[in-house]
Fold:
Amino acid sequence: MTATQPVNDTIAAPATPRGASALAVIRVSGPAGRRLFEAVFGRPPPAPRVICRADYKDVSGRVLDDTLATFFQSPKSYTGEDGFEISAHGNPLIVQLILNDLVKRGCRVAEPGEFTRRAFLAGRLDLSQAEAVADLIHARSERALQSAGRQLRGGLGRQLDGLSDQLLHAVAQVEAHIDFPEEDLPDEDLRQLAGTVGEVLRGTRRLLATQTYGDLLRDGIRVILLGAPNVGKSSLLNRLAGRDRALVSPEPGTTRDFIEEPVLLGGHLLRLMDTAGFNPAPGAIERLGMEKAAGEAAAAHLFLWVVDARQAAAPPALPPEISGRLTPDNALVLFNKADLSPVRQAAALPCPAFWVSALTGEGLGKAQAALAGLAERLEPETLDGEAIAINARHADALRRANEALSLAAQKLEAGDTSVLLASDLREALDAIGEIMGKLDNERVLDRIFSTFCIGK
Amino acid sequence: MIVCGGGHAGCEAALAAARMGASTLLLSGNLDTLAQMSCNPAIGGQAKGQMVREIDALGGEMALNTDVTGIQFRLLNESKGAAVQSPRAQCDKKAYQFRMKQTLELQPGLRIFQAIVTDIVASNGNLLMVRTGQGDAFVGKTVVLTTGTFLRGLMHIGLNKSEGGRLGDFAVRELSGALERLGIGLKRLKTGTPPRVLGSSLDFSLMEEQKGDKVPTLFAFHDTRGDGDLFHMERPGLSRPGWPPGSVALSCWMTYTTGETARLVRENVHRSAMYSGEIRGVGARYCPSIEDKFVRFADKPRHLLFLEPEGRATEEYYINGLSTSLPMEVQTALVRSVPGLEKAVILRPAYAVEYDYAPPTQLLPSLESKKVPNLFFAGQINGTSGYEEAAAQGLVAGVNAANKALGREPMIIGRHEGYIGVLIDDLVTKGTNEPYRMFTSRAEHRLLFNHGSAELRLARHAEANGLLPPERVARIRRKAARIGHWVALLETERSGAGQGTFADAIRRAPAALSVLTGLPQDFVNETEAIKSEVLYRVAYKGYLERERRQIERLAHTEKIKIPAGFDFMAVRGLRKECALKLSELRPQTLAQAGRVSGVNPPDIGILMVALEAARRGTASSSPTTDCAEP
Structure:
């Protein structure tokens, strides 16, 4: 692959800024415009430029949103191509899900300014606007580059660096035997190669699961409420969710199973999960609930540790496997029932604490803001339109790397070290290269020559 | 048209131009060393073998010359998949040269003349004039320079230096200055070659034999070897004393360096021209000297050496793997430290040679100089290494110099069409800092470059430039049609064995490709070339389609041309470093610009808009405006 973006494929991107708002518009343009319209809305487009109401269904058939859709027919469209616009509800989660789905269906996330560039190239804008188009591409790509740079300098970049280095090593092994069959090279170590490929595959899977934000968006951020029985976890959950979902009773240990409530907070989807309280002397059923709570806690992204305000000075201990995970980046302590506690003295705790009352609503606003702040930090990127595009692109590239690596793993399993194995590995390397910047062939050769003594 | 140099590049350039109808003159400093294999006596191998078949597909001579003069043929990489299988041949060095010389002599429209070119100047408008050491001058519409390692060639054996492009040959001192006066930048590269030894002084019983294939894989698409051919080295009846009766192919022999070799190298490395700082030119990483091998890979106890016969009528052997610039007495000890070579007699010493090359980013994709119109460059002067790389460039430069002289469009082979396309695009777009050699891994679409498909891939260029006789073009078209027919049929016809089509069955067991049971009899009766191409396309359909999709996605930007005088610095929004790089390199298409390192997609986006604006600005003063809704 080269740096050049093709202009004959179908592109998609949000047209409205990121953030919660009444409406969000997503634009799609390219030769697959009509086919995609039919695929996602399950109906042929109405007459061009006529708005229709339609459910957007993803590849698995799940309805993502109730939207308004408008089809534009080539050449009478902004870009001169077939295309459509989706007006969805202005929830960043929905926008991201729709965009991810469009990518899965073969769309490419548009380059900065690409709709306008296409419009210009199609003769839809006149010559006097050429400079304005160039300025637009320049400005938007600078912004995109900056936010991508921030992301790649962080944990994502480090992990990708490691993966691409491992992959480069594997590629060099395989390529050396293809390009230098007459050399006295050590035999290919299939087990080691398979090990490397497996490790990279696990790495890209892990990145897809944790770093791309896609899963967080799809499933929501898992926030778990922890604490001793009867500190008011369920009441707080109801407060935060704004309705009575959890069964609330003054009797300790009422919540034995899970209560889960989706909450939209500052543009983030949170899945608040109420758990059984950690009781030092539980009954049989309660014990089951507690075990499950510990299991759920292991998969949680954020923790809300609820403590009875009257015990703030000496909160009952949490199981060590949980308390060990709490940090200022992933946990808040809520001293609930603050209304009952005139004395406000708290023990030193590993994370910020808030005095709240599920009953009166005291302190809840601040706690919510802090929770939204934590959710914000979970996202790999600041939230504007460009950043979403980058994320969807990363996820797309990682998915392609995954597919290619799975094929490579199968071949290694079968003892196949042919040029097709090399082809799969390089596809994966190219895909990661789309995020990191392309590794050109020279890098592969460098690695071969520094690893093996080649030459006659 | 004038070709300066008679190596592998010069011979192909002169033949191609003459065959296209250009009146051609080839000047060489020594007509006895035309098409000389200055290094090892072999043609082909990884990626190079495919390239030689491409040369044949474009009407070049290297493939035919190799087939006739070959003394051992092997198909490399049989286990790695058809795409990367490469034919390789040991050749009879002298036969190779003399057959090529005769071919040049017999070629209508071509004159060869022994002379050393010492100067080149622009003359009378667009004409170029070359002057020779004898004081003659020749004027041509176009000139192709194929100087090999002769420009300020300097040879090193230990600390001993002597001028020359090759052992026993001269150096050309004056031409470098002439090129610099024309504004062409020059740099230094280095290459080296191992000692040659006397076969009768070797003990082959201590070495491992490497035999050729029973059935040779030829390079040319049609076997033209005839029994009566003077240069045909494998013709029956030829035999050597001491060789098994009936054996016509010669063997190569494998042996290894020893601990003693390593000790000798380590103790004397300061006396090597390479390590004493005598040599400033850059050598290739894939062609290290024995000094390099022991220094850079100190933990590797021994290194593989091949003894390759230099010809059928000579006892001379080439020690592949023992390139060095150590002094003569160390070379002798070094050679004799190797099993089987204990009593070896050295016929010619190993040496390193430094020479001038003109960094190839100064060239257009036609291999014409950007600075000096009508002057073309091919071969080692462009920083490459290898007979095949040289011949491929020579062919392209010859074709394009003829096209230019005849007022036609240049032939540009795409990166997706063959190794020759990759070679030239890499050279003119990226340049090179070490002698450039082709590897399959340099080609992003190598799955499409299986050696058997070369004439199918390049037929359109051969036809458009008149490089093949019309009957051969017609034959290729028929072959392509047969292949298309069979691929379609195997994809749709259900196999007798149940479970889907023939194609499904082939893809289920691609390892059993050669087993043709159950396939339609008419198909089985097809030629081997057709059958293997059909089976290849069917078996690797998924991968080949992926390659084609990638090519299609990029095809658009290949078509967007950048006008010659385009001012990159004036493009608003284009990053300065990017504009500078593009101004220097002057890519001809948007796709080529995209391959320049450091050029990003947004730059290409901006460039695309600027090119469109420039096009409209010159095409019509009134812009088309039927601007629609935003």
Notes: The first strand of chain A starts at residue 11 and ends at 14.
